[in-house]
Amino acid sequence: MFTGIVEELGEVTAVETLDDACRFRLRGPVVTQGAKHGDSIAVNGVCLTVVDHEGDEFTADVMAETLNRSSLGALKAGSRVNLERPMAVGERLGGHIVQGHVDGTGEIVERKPSDNWEIVKISLPADLTRYVVEKGSITVDGISLTVVDAGPDYFTVSLIPTTLDLTTLGQKQPGDPVNLEVDVIAKYVERMLGDRAQGAAQ
């Protein structure tokens, strides 16, 4: 489990294309401290498994399903990525519960800068709109954010300077894809209410 609090802005150093997958080599001096084979590291919000680790770099295999459901397929050598290690038991939950399981992708639609923050508008797939509410939580490229406005096919977030400086959202431009993970609690509530309604109808 992750919290959506990005630990560092890493970099893709190499991409190896396989038959139905990709192998990424990524640099992240913070997240590789103590890393070992089999550990999990979130890359732009996608939970990946460490295959090899050497120095401040690690490799991870990404299957076709993940490439199809996320924006990782657009990464290339030199791409910057948000990196986060799983939360350790007993630590503070700084963001919200993040699984690292991407629900879909959106696109940066618009950026409106101001003196102390920036409002970013992001497109929202139709099948995810019911999970996104004003002042609720959403994960964008692995970053735990609060929804400012929830529209029929978009939502907006307000980014403080720290987020702009230390994550990929400081660089993303209109048209760029982002990974989205909605609040898992909303999905559980929907499932439980659906089961209850179905049971009452029988």
Please give the structural blueprint.
Elements lengths: L7 E10 L3 E7 L12 E4 L2 E9 L2 E7 H6 L10 E5 L19 E10 L4 E6 L13 E4 L2 E8 L3 E6 L1 H6 L10 E6 L1 H18 L1
Antiparallel strand pairs: 1-2, 1-6, 2-5, 3-4, 3-6, 4-5, 7-8, 7-12, 8-11, 9-10, 9-12, 10-11
Residue share in β-strands = 35-45%
Radius of gyration: 17 Å
Instruction: Give the averaged pLDDT, no decimals.
Output: 91
**Derived structural class:** mainly beta
Uncertain runs with pLDDT below 50, 5 residues or more?
none
User: Describe the biggest sheet?
Assistant: 6 strands, antiparallel, barrel
Sequence of secondary-structure elements: EEEEEHEEEEEEHEH
Tell me the span between the first and last alpha carbons: 37 Å
How many beta-strand segments? 12
Overall body shape: globular
Strand order of the largest sheet: 1-2-5-4-3-6
The tally of helices reads 3
Give the fraction of residues assigned to helices. Answer: 10-25%
Description:
The chain has 202 residues and is mainly β. It is built from 3 helices and 12 strands. The strands form 2 sheets. It has a 6-stranded antiparallel barrel. A 6-stranded antiparallel β-barrel has the order 7-8-11-10-9-12. The protein is globular and about 45 Å long.
Keywords:
202 residues, mainly beta, six-stranded antiparallel beta barrel, 15% helix, globular
Task: Provide a concise account of the structure shown.
It is built from three helices and twelve strands. The chain has 202 residues and is mainly β. Strands 1-2-5-4-3-6 form a six-stranded antiparallel β-barrel.
